[in-house]
Amino acid sequence: MSQSLDRALTLVAALADETKTLDQLAEEVGVHKSTVLRLLRTLESHHFVHREGARHYRLGSALFDLANRSLEQRDVRRSAEPALAALNERTGHTVHLASFEDDEAVYIDKFEGHHSVRMYSRVGKRARLHCTAVGKVLVAALPPARREELARSLEYPVFTAGTIGDAEAYLAELDRVLACGYALDATEHEDFIHCIAAPVRGARGEVLAALSLSVPTMLLDIDGLLALVPDLLAAAEEASVRCGWSKKEQGGTSR
User: Fold this and answer.
1) Boundaries of each IclR-ED domain copy (predicted)?
2) Whether the Cβ atoms of residue 160 and residue 186 lie closer than 8 Å to each other
């Protein structure tokens, strides 16, 4: 990668969380302000960066346009969208779609719950593999040798009293996911949210994504959440059919 391109991408990443000044950006990139200013002007001319006032910079509109166009190119997102929308309308709870990329779970679609409690998740955000329902579904779908290799390479930071803390426990959990056809996050990542997820499959039966239903514990206890599993599985099956999966050809449910 060219040095200028590397620096320009570093500048874009540095602006992801908040607006920053020229001085702040020069310090982050580690080069003189004149070099950063030249790069910013180029990025600004293509609308990747926008200058606010005399001193501050933020991400520009071109990035959001590219992000939306990239998401629209994802066949699974486009195909599964009606099933996600229907599940959200039927239950009133937050629905996510996540895919597996570079050994990470990434949210690629979200329908916000109808209640006042909002989740911090967003499209494009990474989800932990060991303590989220979508992460468990996506890792469980890997070939056994790859699944074990990944499980043993993960770090296991503890977020709540229920977080899985080691590879052996995680592998056992993945076996349960495969046996049940869905995964459960029992307040393992956030102590006020629990979640269930199921696989969305493609024409060959491969897992393309994980569809999840997330509910604040103040609205539903664990029994109430598990009572929604049939709705979740029906939505995952509908999404799978829309992605080319055939229940008849695969000989069973989409799990």
Assistant:
1) 62-245
2) no
Asked if the 3-62 domain carries CATH number 3.20.19.10, the reply is no
User: Tens digit of pLDDT for each residue in 210-238?
Assistant: 999 999 999 999 999 999 999 999 999 99
At position 196, the amino acid (one-letter code) is: I
CA-nearest of 128, 119, 111, 118 to 185 is 128
| CA-based max dimension of the chain | 64
- Residue 202 CA, chain-centre distance (Å), reads 19
Burial 25-61 (b: 16+ CB within 10 A, else e): bbeebeeeeeebeebbeebeeeebbbeeeeeebebbe
Displacement of CA 147 from its chain's centroid (Å): 19
CATH 3.40.50.2300 at 74-242, yes or no: no
Any idea where the domains of the chain sit in the sequence?
A: 3-62, 74-242
Please name the residues in contact with 179: beta carbons below 8 A apart, sequence gap of 6 or more.
Answer: none
Task: Convert the pLDDT of each residue in 141-151 to its tens digit.
Answer: 999 999 999 99
Short-list 214, 225, 19, CA closest to 120: 214
Backbone angles phi, psi at 68, to 5 degrees: -65, -40
And the tokens for 115?
């209640």
**In angstroms, how far is CA 243 from the centroid of its own chain?**
19
Instruction: Give dist(CA 194, CA 223) in Å, integer.
Output: 11
**Which region holds residue 112: left if phi is over 0, alpha if psi is between -120 and 50, else beta?**
beta
Backbone angles phi and psi of 178, in degrees to 5: -65, -40
- DSSP code of 32? -
